[in-house]
Amino acid sequence: MTAARAAPRSAGRLAAAGGLALLVAVALYAFGRTHTPAYAMGLFGQHGVAVNRLKAELATGMLGLALVQLTLALWMYRRLPGAGPAPAPVFLLSLPVAVHCMFAYGVQLFDPRVAVHSLAGCLFYGAFAAKVLIVRSRRLPGWALPLAGGLLVTLIVVMWYSSALWYFDGARLPLP
Predict the structure, then answer these.
(1) Closest by alpha carbon to 24, among 16, 35, 14?
(2) Nearest partner of 46 among 37, 35, 57, judged by Cα
(3) Distance between CA 33 and CA 107 in Å, rounded?
(4) In angstroms, how far apart are the furthest CA atoms of the chain?
(5) Range 146-154, long-range pairs (CB < 8 A, 24+ positions)
(6) pLDDT tens-digit profile of 22-43?
(7) Which of 5, 127, 128, 161 has the fewest CB atoms inside 10 Å of its own CB, making it the most exposed?
């Protein structure tokens, strides 16, 4: 295959990944804005304030795993010595937190912290869907996978900062 013919295919694959990311994020946003929140919903047998602590702990675990994944990605791209696979538990650990957030609260935009957290959560799953497509394609530019991975880590940090850190700091955000 010639380079001229490969470029449109790569662009099409990138457009498909970006389109999927947008579709997932918009679908989650629409669901979160239109359903009626169930504020009393529990998570793993926890209710009320205990749910917030559990979600903050799970989010902190997710942040830790994302940092491990970032380190392994740097390692894999020879920015650190050696190589290794990225952990799948980052996504799995996020699911119970996301399901509870979507059903208990939905997407809320009344407060800047809550709005940033809600939108970052929607974008996270869109970016994750795009990254899955990018990982499976070997014909994309070399910068596509690091960009998708970096976006995921950034969104995890934003979600953690706007929720878990807020919870652990007594419902305050330490501003830089």
Answers:
(1) 16
(2) 57
(3) 5
(4) 60
(5) 146/73, 146/77, 148/17, 149/69, 149/70, 149/73, 149/86, 150/70, 151/127, 152/66, 152/124, 152/127, 152/128, 153/66, 153/67, 153/69, 153/70
(6) 898 888 888 888 888 777 777 8
(7) 5
